[in-house]
Write a structure and sequence with these properties.
The chain is an all-beta fold. Helices cover 0% and strands 60% of the residues. The protein has strands at 2-7, 10-12, 18-26, 28-39, 46-51, 57-59, 67-72, 77-82, 91-101, 106-110, 114-118. Strands 2, 4, 5, 6, 9, 10 and 11 form a seven-stranded mixed β-sheet that branches. The mean pLDDT is 96.
C-alpha cells in the first residue's frame, strides 16, 4: 500500500506565494511521474503540472511561468511552488503519483487534497 501526504495549502492574497508538498510512503519500488491536479468548485479536476523521474516537466498554460514543480527522488517528495497567485487559482489541489510497488505492479495514487484560496 502507498500513501500520499499533502500539505502547504492555505489562504493567500493575490500576488502571493505558496508551496505545496507531497510525501509518498509505503511499499514503493519506484515513483515514475508525479503531478498536481486541482479542482475548483463546480468544475472538473484539471491537470496543473507533472514531472517525470528524470525531471521533465509539463505545465498547464494557465500556470506557466508562475508555478514550478520539483521533486526529491531520494525522499519520495514532490513540491509545487506557486508564485504570483491569482483568484482563479483557488481550488483544492491534489497530488498524484504513478508508483511501481515492491510487488512489481504500477498504480496511480492520489493525495487527500489541500485547499488553496487566493483572495484579498
Amino acid at each position: 500500500q502507498v500513501q500520499l501526504a499533502t500539505s502547504g495549502g492555505g489562504l493567500v492574497q493575490p500576488g502571493g506565494s505558496l508551496r505545496l508538498s507531497c510525501a509518498a510512503s509505503g511499499s514503493i519500488f519506484s515513483i515514475n511521474a508525479m503531478g498536481w491536479y486541482r479542482q475548483a468548485p463546480g468544475k472538473q479536476r484539471e491537470l496543473v503540472t507533472t514531472i517525470t523521474s528524470g525531471g521533465r516537466t509539463n505545465y498547464a498554460d494557465s500556470v506557466k511561468g508562475r508555478f514550478t514543480i520539483f521533486r526529491d527522488n531520494a525522499k519520495n517528495l514532490a513540491y509545487l511552488q506557486m508564485n504570483s497567485l491569482k483568484p482563479e487559482d483557488t481550488a483544492v489541489y491534489y497530488c498524484n503519483c504513478n508508483v511501481t510497488t515492491r510487488s512489481g505492479l504500477t498504480y496511480a495514487y492520489w493525495g487527500q487534497g489541500t485547499q488553496v484560496t487566493v483572495s484579498s
